[in-house]
Amino acid sequence: MSPLYILSLGLLLLHTTPLCSSIAVSNDTLTAGQVLVVGGKLVSRNGKFALNFFQFQPTNTISKSTHNARSPSSWYLGVWFNNVPVFTTVWVANRDQAITDHNLNLTQLKISSDGNLVIVNQAANTESVISSSHIVNNRTQTSSINTSTIIVVLLNSGNLVLRNSLSSDLVLWQSFDYPTDVVLPGAKFGRNKVTGFSRRLISKKSLIDPGLGSYIIELEDTKGIVLQYGNLSVVYWHWPSPSTSSLNLIPILKTYLDSDSRTKGLINPTYVDNNQEEYYMYTSPNESSSTYFSLDISGQININVWSQANQSWQIVYSEHVDSCTPFATCGPFTVCNGIAKPFCDCMENFSQKSPLDWNFSDRTGGCIRNTPLHCSTSDKNITSSTDMFHPIARVTLPYNPKSIDIATTQSECEEACLGSCSCTTYSYNNSRCSVWTEQLLSVNLNDGIDNTSEDILYLRLAAKDLLPSLRKK
Ligand SMILES: *[C@@H]1O[C@H](CO)[C@@H](O)[C@H](O)[C@H]1NC(C)=O
Ligand SMILES: *[C@@H]1O[C@H](CO)[C@@H](O)[C@H](O)[C@H]1NC(C)=O
Ligand SMILES: *[C@@H]1O[C@H](CO)[C@@H](O)[C@H](O)[C@H]1NC(C)=O
Ligand SMILES: *[C@@H]1O[C@H](CO)[C@@H](O)[C@H](O)[C@H]1NC(C)=O
Ligand SMILES: *[C@@H]1O[C@H](CO)[C@@H](O)[C@H](O)[C@H]1NC(C)=O
Ligand SMILES: *[C@@H]1O[C@H](CO)[C@@H](O)[C@H](O)[C@H]1NC(C)=O
Ligand SMILES: *[C@@H]1O[C@H](CO)[C@@H](O)[C@H](O)[C@H]1NC(C)=O
Ligand SMILES: *[C@@H]1O[C@H](CO)[C@@H](O)[C@H](O)[C@H]1NC(C)=O
Ligand SMILES: *[C@@H]1O[C@H](CO)[C@@H](O)[C@H](O)[C@H]1NC(C)=O
Ligand SMILES: *[C@@H]1O[C@H](CO)[C@@H](O)[C@H](O)[C@H]1NC(C)=O
Ligand SMILES: *[C@@H]1O[C@H](CO)[C@@H](O)[C@H](O)[C@H]1NC(C)=O
Ligand SMILES: *[C@@H]1O[C@H](CO)[C@@H](O)[C@H](O)[C@H]1NC(C)=O
């Protein structure tokens, strides 16, 4: 497959600057006074990475018409693997500030007069900033540097660096400090103990939307690595710091990676803890290989290696063997089954809220009822309902149950649920009655991998949905 993004090199000179034709345009560098526009790109010296304005394209499995029906053609500036024929971004500058088609011709990447790296909308007399490195907005920080000597370089590592052209040590800003959902070899994942600055990853929203998604991974002070579902702050995986625990991740990971021929000698993980910083990092000694560590849309941490033979990315390591372990990975009102393909399905008599979003791996909308519940509460506060319950066997109980202590039999538990129009589900086991009044999250089938729960969930459904199957019986 040829890359979808065949773009010509087009570094344009900004006509309003006094610095003009004297600038030699080199492919990996943008200097003060130059601008990068749509159609142009920077390429790292080794050819491995490129930076440009791009659009996410529908893959060939998804019809173009459905994609276009929804997408207002959002454009982003990002770094991607230039030598891999499957378009794979490793960093996006404007995750939640997409550029629309309408503004495209006016959009530029440049070094602003105050020394920041900015994406601007350059209308006739006004310039509005879409995205900025924000790091050099303090004049005292740059006072020692003549801003006309600031350059931006896309390094061989994929790191986009804003620095003084006279001294490569003087890094003002770098993309490795502001990762999106990927850690490349040589980038630090961790925190600065002095400033508190933390390099964390946040998953994408979907395959076509790099905006801030549901999952966050961060190296926290004292807690170690924490992986959580951001919206509800539910931590579903963590790894303590070696300083507070005998369980050191590095030797465990090394043993694992060395046992696989695809990763043996290819990935060297390290952990650094000193007075200044605590971080994890890995290197990849084989310059011609392509690899990246990612937090994916469904909440999995993966190590991905490009397979030349298969012409595809291979996931050589996943932190969770069970796809169902990431919290709420299938969205509300779904059942997750780690040994099924696909592993997410709607609960019975529910349908995907947005099949299109599901196709782009965004399942945050989950599933919705086919038939509304039949329940009402009278003036005298008497609730009447014709709804019925459908058992879902051998599942984990969903997030956030409410205990009903006064119900001590299963029928009392069922009555308690029917007595409230907001109750969606109940479960009864060992005189323990639990009900749920919100969306059901993280209902995982006993798939024998990560969970062996034997609980039964009684899902409330409209009688209309259940009567046909009851009559058959
Ligand atoms: C820039 O890239 C073009 C084509 O990719 C190449 O022909 C040219 O030699 C490159 N220039 C420099 C200075 O690397
Ligand atoms: C952008 O510029 C191109 C070429 O100059 C032109 O064909 C296109 O119509 C312009 N698009 C918009 C939205 O102005
Ligand atoms: C600028 O930097 C100095 C020294 O780092 C700091 O004291 C000051 O608060 C900063 N000013 C702004 C506006 O950030
Ligand atoms: C910055 O450098 C440019 C080119 O070297 C020079 O023309 C300009 O006067 C310098 N500006 C300052 C404030 O030193
Ligand atoms: C997070 O919660 C807010 C408010 O409840 C909701 O609007 C939003 O869709 C949620 N985001 C995700 C990714 O679930
Ligand atoms: C380095 O990686 C390339 C591309 O994946 C592969 O063809 C080559 O065999 C690797 N070299 C070594 C020494 O492993
Ligand atoms: C990659 O290709 C090889 C040889 O064609 C095959 O044996 C292997 O299963 C493939 N790997 C994956 C993950 O598909
Ligand atoms: C989602 O993908 C499936 C299978 O690829 C396809 O049949 C279906 O039409 C797609 N749905 C939408 C809304 O794009
Ligand atoms: C109605 O009944 C429910 C539970 O049976 C109770 O929580 C609620 O306070 C009652 N509301 C009024 C207005 O009496
Ligand atoms: C398995 O399910 C039980 C019961 O819901 C839960 O307490 C436990 O955390 C789950 N384990 C995993 C690894 O998901
Ligand atoms: C009931 O709960 C216990 C633990 O609380 C569990 O071991 C058992 O499998 C459950 N049984 C059913 C039928 O849910
Ligand atoms: C509800 O789901 C059951 C089981 O899948 C099915 O037999 C029944 O027809 C559904 N009810 C309606 C009204 O679709």
Automatic annotation (TrEMBL):
It comes from the Eukaryota. This is Uncharacterized protein.
